[in-house]
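Example record

Each entry pairs one chain with its bound ligand, (2R)-2,3-dihydroxypropanoic acid.
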Amino acid sequence: MSKKPVIAVGRKLPKAVEARLKRDYDARLNAEDRLYSTDEWLALLQGADGALPCHSEIFSAEVVARLPESVRIIANYSVGYDHVDTAACKSRGIVVTNTPDVLSDATAEIAMLCLFGAARRASEGDRMVRDGRWKVWSPDFMVGVQITGKRIGIVGMGRVGLVMAARARAFDMEVHYYNRNRLSEDQEKALGATYHASLDSLLPAVDVVSLHCPTTPETRGLMNADRFRQMRDGAILVNTARGALIDEAALIGALKSGKLFAAGLDVFNTEPGGNPALAELDNIFMLPHIGSATFDTRDAMGYRALDNLDAFFAGKEPRDRVA
Ligand code: DGY
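Structure tokens for the complex follow.
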């Protein structure tokens, strides 16, 4: 029997995923789910044929340069791969894959939660009841923004953006979007979606802006003070994609001034941890990067990463190759 490929695994994965990993690979698991330092992670990768990291394991150009020759594939347990320097991997002939599709529903669910949490002041209300500070009720109390029938602007109409658009339609929202590529006429028709060729056109046209694009050099800091100025007064910002898309200081300014009514955020510039300055504001609904954190989706992400490894070690092209 030929030797099983050795796979270094970044974090603790769901039971069923680890069972399949152990069956088919010589898996170096992280039973304690510790966040490895770069040196520990590189030590674990010594002699490994592949890596199965999450977005918490950073493969910068410097880390990639220090990878042992044996590592031939990085099969990410994530759809986002901004934590991997794909150019550096390419130049070393290391294959990189991700896990698209399987987390679109779960992430769109969290985006809807962030949207409603922001619009209906969920953090403020929850804390008030928990802390025993709920002393009054009146027609003027905890009034928020009604979402039904409003206009949503989706930035990045990829897999998650499309699901978000469909969910928004269930609340009679009018869908507007900005994306590098325009949808087909049929897709636009099905979603009743209006295309904007630029953010300059999209931002002033919508009541809610929801970010669903990856972090790239072009999108880093995309939502800055100028962009917030372009948004409608009292608009809502939702981000379930990557924290790096937002200039958080500018967002705080827009929230404090009342330019924006609220924000719903699942991702931050600094993770884990978030931003204490954001936490001071009542008009932010925040979650700790849990867009894909459902039992179903976490299993599905693992199976997808394993399918990519299986294909690679069978000499085939992995379905989700990104580099
Ligand atoms: C993803 O898959 O990119 C999620 O953000 C979790 O890493």
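Residues 104-282 form a domain with the Rossmann fold fold (CATH 3.40.50.720).
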